[in-house]
């Protein structure tokens, strides 16, 4: 019963988390097939099942929220990233780079039944350079007799290998204790910036849409503030730019300015960059080149921003060279391809001429305000009550699931939890989400609606 019922403790946890601000990030890295995804699932336990129960989200998510020993943190699963087009080395190096950029602590998973390989050694080197705390997971130690194998992994020079069976759960608790012992309470990147610090924007979009042109235009026209904290040990990754009387932090600009040309896997690399920028940002500005058909890559980047739960603005760029015929098709494409993000504010700009760039900041501010907005519980339930009365869930198998109660469990982005007397069909959940938007706005922010069934 507790599995599905109203869990006040858990709800309190959600509320506390919403108030507590950004969580530290734990990245799980390692070669393909060592058991990263299995381990991440093990760490998440049953909680994740609830988070997944939100409409409209079917694709892989990279980042999850987890809790261990009363502490909450994010887990980045790099397990789904391996792609055949990339060699194993490139894939592992990319994971490590991602971890270096975004994580506060790292679990390196090694297959103890195989032992340390050259690829493992290579990733250790990268991780060591990053200076982030690393815990070594000797995985696939399914029984006591395997523990000797784990001790060989001392050779990696990362300290004690923690023998674990991700599959059976053996040893994972002790390993997580070790992780928490070295993980900071708040993410380094955002620490101290949550109250009154500059808001963090990621400029993202596929290659050649005009990201660096936009960054340059914004930086040139307005005052660029020199960031004293960046660039101590590596390239400055963020730039502070004053726009509309406020300072904004454009994150991960090194990735925009430093053009990366990889023969293989350039797309793959670009998508890691996007994920890294999103991880650090509060708002995403996705650029689209209006002179090209909206592509799968464009929609994938938008999906990444939505699934990362960031405030979203879509900037249609290169408006200066668009011809009238194209304009007609563009509007049609937007209607068809971007129907999922109709709620995102839109600006039609030219990074080259500067046309309408001044509209960017107000759009981002609108999106951020929605992202942080909170609907009082009374108001929400008044709305839900009316909605349920006028549009009840269809009867299924002689039963009619009802929404009993709802609450906004968190912000940034708004997260709602609905308690229902039975399973709510996806279509009905989407309907509720649509009506929530109609009622409360949420322009520029994804919202998450999860359902807990109370039998
Ligand atoms: P990833 O590619 O690193 O994410 O690896 P997966 O999590 O997909 O696991 C690869 C394979 O190893 C799967 O068949 C898992 O069932 C298996 N595996 C993962 N962890 C363990 C473990 O602790 N013991 C054993 N025996 N197999 C495991
Ligand atoms: P990035 O790869 O997303 O950083 O794209 P760039 O900023 O390097 O731009 C790619 C190309 O598009 C360059 O040749 C730019 O000069 C051009 N470009 C960028 N923005 C505009 C624009 O608003 N109008 C026009 N006509 N060209 C643009």
UniProtKB/TrEMBL annotation:
Q: Which residues are GTP 1-binding?
A: 30-37, 77-81, 139-142
Gene3D superfamilies annotated for this entry? 3.30.300.20, P-loop containing nucleotide triphosphate hydrolases
Transmembrane residues, as ranges? none
Does the keyword section mention Repeat? yes
Give any single GO term for biological process: ribosome biogenesis
Residues reported in the UniProt entry to bind GTP 2: 205-212, 252-256, 317-320
* Keyword flag Chaperone: no
Give the SMART domains listed for this entry. Answer: AAA
Q: Which UniProt keywords apply?
A: GTP-binding, Nucleotide-binding, Repeat, Ribosome biogenesis
* Origin: domain of life: Bacteria
Q: Which residues form the EngA-type G domain?
A: 24-187, 199-372
Q: Which GO terms describe its molecular function?
A: GTP binding; ribosome binding
Q: What role does it play?
A: GTPase that plays an essential role in the late steps of ribosome biogenesis.
UniProt record similarity statement: Belongs to the TRAFAC class TrmE-Era-EngA-EngB-Septin-like GTPase superfamily. EngA (Der) GTPase family.
Self-association state and partner proteins as the record states: Associates with the 50S ribosomal subunit.
- In its UniProt entry, what is this protein called? GTPase Der
Q: Which gene encodes it?
A: der
């Amino acid at each position: 019963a507790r599995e599905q019922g109203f869990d006040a403790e858990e709800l309190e946890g959600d509320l506390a988390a919403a108030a507590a601000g950004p969580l530290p990030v734990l990245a799980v890295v390692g070669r393909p097939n060592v058991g990263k995804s299995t381990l991440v699932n093990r760490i998440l336990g049953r909680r994740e099942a609830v988070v997944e129960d939100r409409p409209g989200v079917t694709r892989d998510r990279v980042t999850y929220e987890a809790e261990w020993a009363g502490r909450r943190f994010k887990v980045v699963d790099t397990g789904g990233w391996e792609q055949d087009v990339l060699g194993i080395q490139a894939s592992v190096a990319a994971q490590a780079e991602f971890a270096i950029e975004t994580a506060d602590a790292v679990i390196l998973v090694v297959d103890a039944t195989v032992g340390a390989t050259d690829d493992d050694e290579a990733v250790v080197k990268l991780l060591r350079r990053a200076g982030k705390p690393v815990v070594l997971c000797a995985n696939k130690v399914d029984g006591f007799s395997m523990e000797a194998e784990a001790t060989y992994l001392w050779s990696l020079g990362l300290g004690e290998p923690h023998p674990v069976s991700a599959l059976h759960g053996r040893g994972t608790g002790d390993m997580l204790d070790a992780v928490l012992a070295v993980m900071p309470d708040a993410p380094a990147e955002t620490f101290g910036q949550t109250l009154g610090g500059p808001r963090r924007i990621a400029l993202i979009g596929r290659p050649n849409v005009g990201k660096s042109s936009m960054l340059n235009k914004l930086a040139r026209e307005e005052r660029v503030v020199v960031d004293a904290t960046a660039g101590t040990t590596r390239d400055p990754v963020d730039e502070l730019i004053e726009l509309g009387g406020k300072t904004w932090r454009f994150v991960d600009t090194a990735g925009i300015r430093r053009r990366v040309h990889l023969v293989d896997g350039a797309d793959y690399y670009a998508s890691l960059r996007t994920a890294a920028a999103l991880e650090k940002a509060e708002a995403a500005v996705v650029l689209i080149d209006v002179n090209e058909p909206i592509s799968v890559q464009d929609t994938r980047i938008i999906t990444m921003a939505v699934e990362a739960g960031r405030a979203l603005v879509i900037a249609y760029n290169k408006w200066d060279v668009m011809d009238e015929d194209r304009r007609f098709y563009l509007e049609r494409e937007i209607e068809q391809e971007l129907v999922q993000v109709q709620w995102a504010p839109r600006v039609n700009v030219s990074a080259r001429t500067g046309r309408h760039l001044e509209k960017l900041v107000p759009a981002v501010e609108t999106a951020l305000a929605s992202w942080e907005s909170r609907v009082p519980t009374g108001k929400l339930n008044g709305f839900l009550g009316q909605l349920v009365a006028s549009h009840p869930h269809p009867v299924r198998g002689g039963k009619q699931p009802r929404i009993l109660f709802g609450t906004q469990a968190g912000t940034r982005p708004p997260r709602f939890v609905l308690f229902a007397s039975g399973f709510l069909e996806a279509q009905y959940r989407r309907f509720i989400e649509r009506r929530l938007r109609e009622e409360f706005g949420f322009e520029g922010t994804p919202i998450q609606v999860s359902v807990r069934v109370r039998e």
